[in-house]
Structures are given as structure tokens and as C-alpha cells.
Specification:
heterotrimer, A mainly alpha (50), B mainly alpha (218), C mainly alpha (242), B: 218 residues, mainly alpha, 86% helix, 0% strand, C: mainly alpha, Four Helix Bundle (Hemerythrin (Met), subunit A), cell membrane (chain B)
């Protein structure tokens, strides 16, 4: 299934690897921070509601 | 306006930091480079124009926080803001004072330091001319950076990060004039572009600096 | 019903909450399709060999690196003129995404340049201007972080964005003047003759769509986060006063 990348395998694979890692990092950080901030806001709003 | 300029100049001279420190820093950078790259004369003379430009740029950068920070701390900036002088005028005068205390001495010192780096003979005039044309732009851009970060405690590092990318075009054209001058090529195109940047920046950037300063003083 | 209704933070959050799952789904479909298509099912270029496969991430990320800055510029202008908070926060939310796109473009470019030009890095105009763009992103984000008052930060960063855009364009021309390039011209010109062949073109289009959608999804999500973080700060401040 793996295509034959010839002598440039390193360049191609590391490009895809770096891209996937960097994109995952920004996506994960965004989601993580979104959840944290949302939880903090919910907590405060609940506290004020009571 | 003239009174403000005179006051800034007096302060710079009395405090002792204005003229002296920038120049001393310029000297240090120039002296350190041969230690870093080795004492071969041909190599040094080839990179001398660029080093002089980078040294001048860094010396300019280091003295930027003096433009506004002191006035901000002791509150005289608030006083100036209520004065009849428009904010654009204030930042322009500040930039001018910075240029007279930092840029001008650098221009005058550059040929002396050129000797240390065995700058080729035809390059002297072009290094001086390019610095004379380019350093006003450095002062004005720097004033913008100083105005941006004036409200931030220990904003010096942040200001460097903001200002250095803005210095790129000036540095490229300025160093290009000096380099072409050193190699005896025609310098007209980069010199005109450098002058264009200087004039454009002097004409337009004070408005941005003034806007930023107004926001910070709010 | 006008576009400006979305400047209301509550309305923005409600709408994006509805839209976001779809955007994420489309992003996933486009990215997976495009990258798998590009990686597994495209032929090698006769000159560049398999390195041509890097184009499916290099070109979209480079495009988005510039488009993200343009989007920040527009958002900053909207903030300055109409003072909609969502707009300022969207600009803030977009900056790290743009910086990551710039990083990807630079990194994949280095991996591509190594076998093709025999060097990881050259002071080529395009490469250099991307590096400068990256520095601008860093400065912009650092300024946001450094200022405590939200409105002041929004004002200052939007002015920095405007001034920075002018200087970024200036740097682009300065750098062009300063050095001749190794980099090829535009990949996506409107002139059909100069374009790359269809075999590479269609998966590339899908990838570009994927990157655009990913950017939109991330900006929506991060803007929501910024709105909530800001509201949290405001509520905390109010509690502190009471």
C-alpha cells in the first residue's frame, strides 16, 4: 500500500510528519483551552446564579 | 515645540546616557565582531558595511526605551498630552530628539569605526550617507515601538521583538547602499529607495505613534 | 438581518456552535481525502520525483499563512472602525493559527529544498519574507499577551497589525531587491498554460479547501474561547469589586 517514494522518502515523510504534528498541536491546544475556559466560565456563572 | 526639543536634549545630555551609551555600544559591537569572525583583513573589509549598519541599528534599538519611558513614569507625558501641542507633534519631536542624541553621533562615529574594520576607501562616504539617510527612519520607527510598549512594565524585550521586523526594509536598503558603495557599483537605486522609506516613515508613522500613545494614555 | 448581527458575542457563539460540527466534518473529509489522494494516488513528477507530494501541504499552508494575516488585517480594521469586540478577538484567535501555518510552510519548504536545491535554507526572497512574516506573528501575539486591559490590547494590536502589514509588504519588495531567488514563481497563476497539470491540481485543490476549512474551524473555536475568557475576566473583576 505504501507508495514507493524512492530516494526522497525522508523529505516527503518528514514533511507530512511535521505538518501532522504541528496541526495536531494547534488543534489540541485550541480544544484544551476551549474546554478549560468554558469550565471556568460555567463555574462562575453557576456561582452567580445561586 | 522647540522648547520640548530643547528640554529633551538637555535631559539627554545631563543624564549622560544619551550621547555616550549608544556610541559606546556601537563601539563594543564593532570591536566584538573581529573576535567572533577572526582578524583576517579581507574578510572584515568585505563585511564591514553590514556590521556598521547592524551596530548602528542595535545601538538605536537599545536607546529607544529612553524616548518615552522616563516621561511616562514621572507623569510628564500626561502633562504634555494636555498641552496645546498635538500628539503627532510630540512624537515627532521625541523622534527628532532621539535622532540628534543617538542617530547623529552614530553617523559621525561610523567612519572612525570603519578604520577598525578596514573598511575599503570608497565605502566611507557611502556608509556615512546611507546612515545619515537611514537613521531618521530608525528613530521614527523606534518611537512607534516605544509608544506601543510604553505602558508595559519591562517592555524592553517585547519592544525589540516588535521593532526589529519593522527595521528590515531600512536595514536592507541601507546596507545595500553601503555594500554597493564599497564595491564601487552604482548606488542610486537603493539610495533612492532608502530615502523613500525615510521620508514615507517620517510623514506617516507619527500619526500611528500618536494614536497608539493616546490609547496608552487613556 | 445583516452581517453585523454576528458582532454580538452571544449570537456569535450560538451560531458558530451550530455551524462548527459541520465545518469540522468538512475539514476532516477534505484534509483526509486531499492528503491521502496526494500521498498515495498521484504520480511522481519526472523531474522532482516523489518530493512533488510535498506540494499538497506546502502550498496550502503558505496560502493560509498569508490569508490569516489578511484576515487579521480586516478584523483589525473592523475593530478600529466599528468597535465590535468579536472582531478584535477573532484577530487574536487567528494569529497563532497563522503562525503555525507559516511554520509548516517554512518546515516543508526546508524538507523540499534539501533534495531539490541541495540546501535546507537559502536567503531567497520568498523564504526570507516568510521568515519575516513569522516574526510579525510572534510580535503580534506577544503584544496581545503583554497588555492587561482588553480594550487597550485590542487597539494597540490592531494598529500594530496595520503598520505591520505595510512593513511586511515593504520587506517583501526590499527582499526581492536584495537577492535573486531559487524559488519558482507562483504555483497558482490564472494563466492555464503555466499551471501544473491536472493530476496534481485536483488533489491540491482539495487540500487547499481542507486548510481553509481548518483555519475557519480553528478561528471560530478560538474566538469562542476568547469571548468566554473575556467574560470570565469581567465577571471576576465584578466579584472583586463587590
Amino acid at each position: 500500500m505504501m507508495p514507493d517514494l524512492g530516494k526522497y522518502a525522508f523529505a516527503v515523510l518528514s514533511s507530512y510528519g511535521v505538518t501532522i504534528i504541528l496541526l495536531s498541536v494547534i488543534v489540541v491546544i485550541s480544544f484544551w483551552r476551549a474546554r478549560k475556559v468554558r469550565a471556568a466560565l460555567d463555574e462562575i456563572e453557576n456561582r452567580r446564579g445561586n | 515645540m522647540r522648547a520640548l526639543l530643547a528640554r529633551d536634549l538637555m535631559l539627554a545630555i545631563r543624564a549622560g546616557g544619551g550621547f555616550g551609551l549608544g556610541l559606546a555600544f556601537f563601539l563594543i559591537v564593532t570591536v566584538l565582531v573581529p573576535f567572533g569572525v577572526g582578524p583576517q583583513t579581507d574578510l572584515l573589509s568585505r563585511i564591514a558595511p553590514g556590521i556598521l549598519w547592524i551596530g548602528a541599528l542595535l545601538a538605536c534599538l537599545l536607546s529607544l526605551d529612553r524616548i518615552l519611558a522616563l516621561d511616562w513614569e514621572d507623569g510628564s507625558l500626561d502633562l504634555l498630552a494636555t498641552a496645546p501641542l498635538p500628539m503627532e507633534g510630540i512624537v515627532s519631536v521625541k523622534a527628532l530628539a532621539h535622532w540628534i542624541t543617538t542617530g547623529l553621533p552614530l553617523v559621525l562615529a561610523a567612519p572612525v569605526l570603519g578604520v577598525l574594520l578596514s573598511l575599503p576607501l570608497p565605502a566611507y562616504q557611502w556608509v556615512v550617507i546611507s546612515l545619515a539617510v537611514g537613521t531618521p527612519a530608525l528613530s521614527v520607527i523606534g518611537t512607534f515601538g516605544a509608544a506601543l510598549t510604553v505602558g508595559i512594565k519591562r517592555g524592553g524585550l517585547l519592544m525589540s521583538l516588535l521593532v526589529l521586523p519593522l527595521y528590515v526594509p531600512t536595514l536592507i536598503f541601507g546596507a545595500e547602499v553601503a555594500r554597493r558603495g564599497a564595491e564601487g557599483l552604482t548606488v542610486q537605486a537603493p539610495l533612492l529607495l532608502l530615502a523613500g522609506i525615510s521620508f514615507g516613515v517620517i510623514a506617516l508613522l507619527p500619526f500611528a505613534s500618536a494614536a497608539v500613545l493616546r490609547i496608552n494614555l487613556r | 438581518m445583516s452581517l453585523w448581527e454576528y458582532a454580538n458575542p452571544v449570537k456569535f457563539i450560538r451560531t458558530t456552535d451550530k455551524v462548527l460540527p459541520w465545518v469540522w466534518a468538512l475539514t476532516g473529509i477534505c484534509l483526509v481525502t486531499g492528503l491521502v489522494w496526494g500521498f498515495f494516488f498521484t504520480p511522481d513528477d519526472f523531474r522532482q520525483g516523489s518530493t512533488v507530494k510535498i506540494i499538497y501541504i506546502h502550498v496550502p499552508s503558505a496560502l493560509m499563512a498569508i490569508n490569516a494575516w489578511l484576515m487579521m488585517l480586516v478584523a483589525s480594521l473592523i475593530w478600529i472602525v466599528r468597535r465590535h469586540h468579536v472582531s478584535a478577538l477573532a484577530a487574536r484567535a487567528a494569529a497563532p493559527v497563522g503562525a503555525v501555518m507559516t511554520m509548516i510552510a517554512l518546515a516543508t519548504g526546508a524538507f523540499w529544498g534539501q533534495p531539490m536545491w541541495g540546501t535546507w535554507w537559502a536567503w531567497d526572497p520568498r523564504l526570507t519574507s516568510f521568515l519575516i512574516l513569522f516574526l510579525f506573528y510572534l510580535g503580534y501575539m506577544a503584544l496581545w499577551e503583554a497588555i492587561e486591559n482588553d480594550d487597550t490590547a485590542a487597539d494597540l494590536t490592531s494598529i500594530l497589525c496595520l503598520v505591520g502589514s505595510v512593513f511586511a509588504v515593504l520587506s517583501r519588495y526590499a527582499v526581492n531587491f536584495w537577492n535573486q531567488g531559487l524559488h519558482q514563481g507562483a504555483t497558482l497563476s490564472l494563466d492555464k498554460e503555466e499551471n501544473i497539470s491536472d493530476v496534481f491540481w485536483f488533489p491540491l485543490l482539495v487540500c487547499i479547501a481542507g486548510f481553509v476549512l481548518l483555519f475557519i474551524a480553528l478561528v471560530f473555536l478560538r474566538t469562542q474561547t476568547e469571548i468566554r475568557a473575556r467574560r470570565t475576566r469581567a465577571l471576576l473583576a465584578r466579584e472583586g469589586q463587590a
